[in-house]
Amino acid sequence: MEKRVTFKGWLLPVALIAPQALISLIFFFYPAAQAVWQSLFIPDPFGLSSQFVGLGNFEFLLKDPYYRSSFVTTAIFSTLVTLAAMIPALFLAVVADRLIKGAGAYRTMLIWPYAVAPAVAGVLWLFMFNPRVGVVAWYLGQLGYDWNHVLNDGEAMGLVVAASAWGRISYNFLFFFAGLQAIPKSLIEAAAIDGARFWKRFFTIVLPLLSPTTFFLLVVNVVYAFFETFGVIHTITSGGPQQATTILVYKVFSDGFVGQDLGSSSAQSVILLVVVGLLTIIQFKFVEKKVHY
Amino acid sequence: MATVDLKDIKKSFGKVDVIHGVDMEIADGEFIVIVGPSGCGKSTLLRMVAGLETITSGELLIGGKRANDTEPMDRDIAMVFQNYALYPHMTVADNMAYGLKIAGMPKDQIKAKVQEAAKLLQLDHLLDRKPRELSGGQRQRVAMGRAIVREPSVFLFDEPLSNLDAKLRVQMRLEIKDLQAKLGITSLYVTHDQVEAMTMADRMIVMNGGVAEQIGTPLDVYERPQTIFAAQFIGSPSMNLMDGRIDGGQLKVNDVSLGPVDTREGDVTVGLRPEHVFADSAGVLRLNVHQSEPLGANTLLHGTLEGKAFTASLPGVHRMPGNDRDMSLNFASENLHLFDPKTGKRI
């Protein structure tokens, strides 16, 4: 039964909500409103005045080939990060779920990478793959492969995807593992008696029953790839080479704070806001229908 | 359809021995109930037959063939689980068809089989529902249906009725028994409910602490329990036990003589079922009644007899006896059961 608390006055409830409301107002709504406002102006090169241009910034952006290619880059990047973060996590969870002894130790070790901050993870991967001093790059060189993500855009993309997905695997693993543990053993046994072998059981019983978890992780991971990978990209490639790893969030930063084009940068944030909103709606509308709760 | 032979089946989890060797030959089409208190190893025994637990030692033959190392799916068995284990994301029809689909049966045949089973179990109008939209009894039927459509050689039931309410349990008990008789499929049925065991079994295994205390027909176990445990577990209320002695061919409890017996002298445990005593002013047993439970058809009188708890079940309605609450009871000597107090075995 649901318990409802009824307040007599309005002072206490307002006081209780106030801290969260204030934080949201100051750090979210105010900057968001600022971004919307600024997206309608072009400041002069010295930042002393700005000129109202209406939707000029947006018009310019949508015609800009660099901006359009950043969209494609983001789509590729977020798809790869989501897949690279979820599939290995699911695999590890399935394997760990079959363990009887030592499952706790495995779980703990598999969670560790999550504790590493994205920027630090980026630096770790950068060192390993540095074309001149990196361990992995050196071994690849020994094998006859000339690794250089500073020049090769495919390698650069692969590296930022790996660095972004790596820590995320832990997070996803944890959810998948908990999801697997929640599936009653007798269901698996019933399927085994019904004649389904491991992979058959996995695809017909386990995966469908895991779909709420998978759906949740899909949403969370896409949002992560869109927004929280900034640190990784900044430390490893700074969006290069030739903007090959400049995802939308990174472009907001580099156009605004490096290129000093605050109007365009604000317009990009507004577009990004709309895109993520749409993505979430699409995911809930279409994917959720296929999810069995 | 098949025979099932258990030959000295043992199970250990690490160093803990759970089942200490069960021997049994089950004939084709027989309904065997494995009954015992929780933790006695009855489910483990069933799961070993199913192939869900490995057999530590001994031999399991299904249809005359050694099945110890056969995968569950290759044993030609079907199992009904306590929590039904229905696939929650599939409809009733899909639940029943799952095993057939995997076996690669053509679609139209699957449909016909599912329809047939559904009709048999009166599930035809529920085929498109999901398990969560069904009542407990209906889920139970779907689990049965899933077992039936595969036409296995052996049915395994793991406490299938324990999640149902009392009334439904009685009804489903009859339905399962009927169905098994109709299909003639060898069945092993695990329960902790001695009433289910008595009513359903062709033969039952009474298990306790990993040991098969007695294997026999329900009446056999009721009339000639081989151990104190079997005597107390089967029958409700359970059999009364008294500490007795055989002295010079006379059976005595304290100073009360219960008549002549011709077995060994010395200490014995005397068993007497509550329903096997009757009120008789000339009776030798004196029950000091503490409480009465009128059930309508009969009355349970709880009290002490010769210093030990004793229950009598008398037909009809009985009021609490008068001032001293004492009551004289008598019995027929063929209803006395004698056990060795050390081994717990029948004398």
Automatic annotation (TrEMBL), chain A:
One of its GO terms (biological process) is transmembrane transport. The chain crosses the membrane at residues 12-33, 71-96, 108-128, 156-180, 201-227, 267-287. It is found in: Cell inner membrane; Cell membrane. Residues 71-283 form the ABC transmembrane type-1 domain. Gene3D superfamilies: MetI-like (1.10.3720.10). Keywords: Cell inner membrane, Cell membrane, Membrane, Transmembrane, Transmembrane helix, Transport. Pfam families: BPD_transp_1 (PF00528). Its main location: membrane. The keyword Secreted does not apply. SUPFAM superfamilies: MetI-like (SSF161098). One of its GO terms (cellular component) is plasma membrane. It is a multi-pass membrane protein. InterPro entries: MetI-like (IPR000515), MetI-like_sf (IPR035906), UgpAE/MalFG_permease (IPR050809). The complex is composed of two ATP-binding proteins (UgpC), two transmembrane proteins (UgpA and UgpE) and a solute-binding protein (UgpB). Belongs to the binding-protein-dependent transport system permease family. Part of the ABC transporter complex UgpBAEC involved in sn-glycerol-3-phosphate (G3P) import. Probably responsible for the translocation of the substrate across the membrane. PANTHER family: BLL4140 PROTEIN, SN-GLYCEROL-3-PHOSPHATE TRANSPORT SYSTEM PERMEASE PROTEIN UGPA. This is sn-glycerol-3-phosphate transport system permease protein UgpA. It comes from Palleronia caenipelagi.
UniProtKB/TrEMBL annotation, chain B:
One of its GO terms (biological process) is glycerol-3-phosphate transmembrane transport. GO terms for molecular function: ABC-type transporter activity; ATP binding; ATP hydrolysis activity. Pfam families: ABC_tran, OB_MalK. SUPFAM superfamilies: MOP-like, P-loop containing nucleoside triphosphate hydrolases. The keyword Acyltransferase does not apply. The keyword Secreted does not apply. SMART domains: AAA. One of its GO terms (cellular component) is ATP-binding cassette (ABC) transporter complex, substrate-binding subunit-containing. It comes from the Bacteria. Residues 4-234 form the ABC transporter domain. Keywords: ATP-binding, Cell inner membrane, Cell membrane, Membrane, Nucleotide-binding, Sugar transport, Translocase, Transport. Belongs to the ABC transporter superfamily. This is sn-glycerol-3-phosphate import ATP-binding protein UgpC.
